[in-house]
């Protein structure tokens, strides 16, 4: 089956002027095997960017998860359905990211967990006015527990 290119490469379909048209055109070229016509440099940049975006999403979701686990632990009088839902949603989103891109799991080492934890502590202090001295310097939670849908920190 042969498809004709709907639009030749013009200024209107260049990477810098119309990303959507550029992406569609390069996808079509790729499907047709016309590799010599691909915008390889920009395609490589986009693929790298996609990987960086997934890394950011994973670490951001982990930060939100840790923030809510900390609030759950250090403000037991404020616990509600909203916190539990946020904890569950973040765990589900992280699980999906790791299923779709298992190589992201390597980002979840102890060092990364501690870095994200420190940012979550910063946020929880701002949000709750709790004293910074209340929180351990390093993440007190094991990653397996953090991601375990049945686990919640003790009071």
Short description:
With 155 residues, the chain is mainly alpha-helical.
The number of helical runs is 5
Query: Which runs of at least 5 residues are low in confidence (pLDDT < 50)?
Result: none
Proportion of residues in extended strands: under 5%
SS-derived structural category: mainly alpha
Helix content: 55-70%
Distance between the termini: 64 Å
Q: What does the main sheet amount to?
A: none
Q: Return the string of H and E elements.
A: HHHHH
Principal-axis shape equals elongated
Radius of gyration: 22 Å
Mean pLDDT: 90
Record field, number of beta strands? 0
Map the helices and strands.
Blueprint: H1 19-31, H2 40-74, H3 81-100, H4 110-128, H5 143-147
